[in-house]
Write a structure and sequence with these properties.
By secondary structure, this protein is an alpha+beta fold. The chain folds into two domains: 15-270, Intergrase catalytic core (hpI Integrase, Chain A); 275-420, no CATH class. 57% of the residues lie in helices and 12% in strands. The protein has 19 helices and eleven strands. The chain has helices at 2-15, 18-21, 28-41, 44-57, 65-78, 90-110, 114-118, 124-127, 165-177, 179-183, 206-219, 233-246, 251-258, 263-269, 272-294, 305-316, 320-333, 375-392, 397-420, and strands at residues 128-135, 138-149, 157-163, 191-195, 201-203, 223-224, 227-228, 300-301, 336-338, 343-345, 368-371. The strands form four sheets. A four-stranded antiparallel beta sheet has the order 8-11-10-9. A three-stranded antiparallel beta sheet has the order 1-2-3. A two-stranded antiparallel ribbon has the order 4-5. Strand 6 (223-224) and strand 7 form a beta hairpin. Helix 4 runs antiparallel to helix 5 (65-78). The protein is elongated, with a radius of gyration of 27 Å. The structure holds iron/sulfur cluster. Residues 339, 344, 346, 351-353, 357, 360-362, 365, 367-368 line the site of iron/sulfur cluster.
Length: 424
């Protein structure tokens, strides 16, 4: 009886959904190592392309087996991949390594599920899009991976996932490395080496991918606490979600990126405890900063200075009791975060940086506030530096254009300072 019962609970345990069983969280150090090795391994695409060229040049049966082997060896030696021990399956090994590296980068930087990554079609025109989105008077380039998901509708449906440019490198590497499969009619970016059970060209299976990425960690000896990290496909999604929550991405935006039907599931991915803790911390800090800025007359500049001044006027017109309520209501409109230059009253629809603070443009962005005191010198110095760089990069129009736009922005801030009476 007992045995039967334990067998049953074992089976039940196996079938528990991920919601209850949980996915191990990949430590930051492991994620960093994976990214570094994966970026290096993208170079394998060049070796695979060369091997394909040899096969096209010396196709069987018109060329003797020995001629092809000899040419292949030359290519591998030239590119530093030849080794007596692994000559038998070298192409297969390289393909597995390239697929694993590309998967790690795509999954980690988009949060896509394994099946969504495996449904990416071959060719940048089918799997990548760059769109210029107008945000609050500025234009920002956004990148997306195009694929399908089976999680939101009964049938596989096309969707897009916002991505960072490094994902494009992974897509391009696969396109170069797996051209041989595309040329034989396989439409998938992660092609399977075998044809399907009923014929037809298939994508790599989830099982094969899972096995390959475990090997990836073994090959590169990626360890945590002395043990080789047991990598699984779903860990990337969880890591992505946690990182995004820490960076301050809202739960609705995360739900959209993760393609969750139910927002409750998104909260689990972002870790409800972590999410609640971080939000509470931010809320507290924001309340303090808002009180300091809205409740005072410190001169400010920045794209959002006018809005802040309007808030101040409203605040001054209120009774003491209403002032408290007014201040308490502000953090629920937007939280305040520190940027390099000042403060960001972050509202996603007004964010010129698209949420990436390293692209902050405080002169243009309506979320930006900067205490005016002491800014003039810094701004003038930056302007001079940009002028100097423009001279240096004069043959590179894109860089010159970027620096010019930064100077135009600085000029706006200097203009605001002038109106305020040039606080030093
Ligand atoms: S970080 Fe800068 S550019 Fe981005 S929303 Fe905040 S103030 Fe605007």
């Amino acid at each position: 009886m007992d045995l039967g019962h334990s067998g049953q609970s074992q089976r039940r345990k196996k079938t528990l959904s991920r919601k209850y069983s949980g996915t191990v969280e990949m430590p930051d150090a492991v994620a960093e190592e994976i990214v570094n090795y994966a970026l290096e391994e993208l170079m394998i695409c060049k070796v695979l392309a060369e091997l394909y060229r040899v096969e096209l040049r010396y196709p069987p049966p018109s060329y003797a087996y020995n001629v092809r082997v000899c040419e292949t060896k030359k290519v591998l030696e030239r590119l530093g991949w030849w080794s007596e021990g692994r000559k038998g399956h070298i192409r297969k090994t390289l393909e597995v390594r390239l697929q694993s590296a590309a998967y790690c980068l795509i999954a980690l930087f988009t949060g896509m599920r394994a099946h969504e990554v495996l449904r990416i079609k071959y060719g940048l025109r089918n799997n990548w899009s760059e769109e210029y989105v107008e945000i609050d008077g500025g234009v920002k380039k956004m990148c997306f991976v195009l694929s399908e998901t089976t999680k939101l509708e009964a049938r596989p449906a096309s969707y897009k996932w916002q991505a960072v440019p490094v994902v494009k490198l992974a897509l391009m590497a696969l396109e170069i490395g797996f051209k041989r499969y595309y040329d034989t009619g396989n439409p998938w970016l992660f092609p399977s080496r075998k044809d399907g059970v009923f014929g037809g060209k298939q994508a790599l299976t989830k099982n094969a991918l899972g096995h390959n990425i475990k090997t990836f960690c073994k090959i590169h000896d990626i360890r945590s606490k002395g043990i080789v990290w047991n990598l699984a496909t779903h860990q990337f999604r969880k890591k992505f979600a946690r990182t995004m929550v820490r960076q301050g991405l809202g739960i609705k935006a995360l739900q959209d990126q993760l393609k969750h039907y139910d927002i409750e599931m998104t909260k689990i991915y972002g870790d409800p405890n972590l999410y609640v803790e971080l939000q509470a911390e931010k809320f507290e800090l924001s309340a303090e900063l808002l009180e300091e800025f809205v409740g005072s007359q410190i001169p400010v500049i920045g794209g959002g200075a006018e809005e802040l001044n309007a808030m101040r006027r409203e605040f001054l017109g209120l009774t003491k009791k209403d002032r408290t309520l007014f201040l308490q209501s502000l953090p629920s409109k937007a939280l305040v975060e520190q940027t390099d230059d000042g403060l960001c009253f972050y509202r996603a629809n007004k964010a010129l940086c698209g949420g990436d603070k390293s692209n902050c443009r405080p002169g243009d962005c309506n979320n930006a506030w900067m205490p005016a005191a002491g800014k003039k010198r810094t701004l003038l110095w930056r302007k001079t530096e940009n002028d100097r760089m423009m001279g240096f990069f004069k043959s590179q129009p894109l860089k010159v254009h970027f620096l010019k736009s930064r100077n135009e922005e600085i000029q706006k801030l200097l203009g605001q300072l002038e109106k305020l009476g040039a606080c030093e």
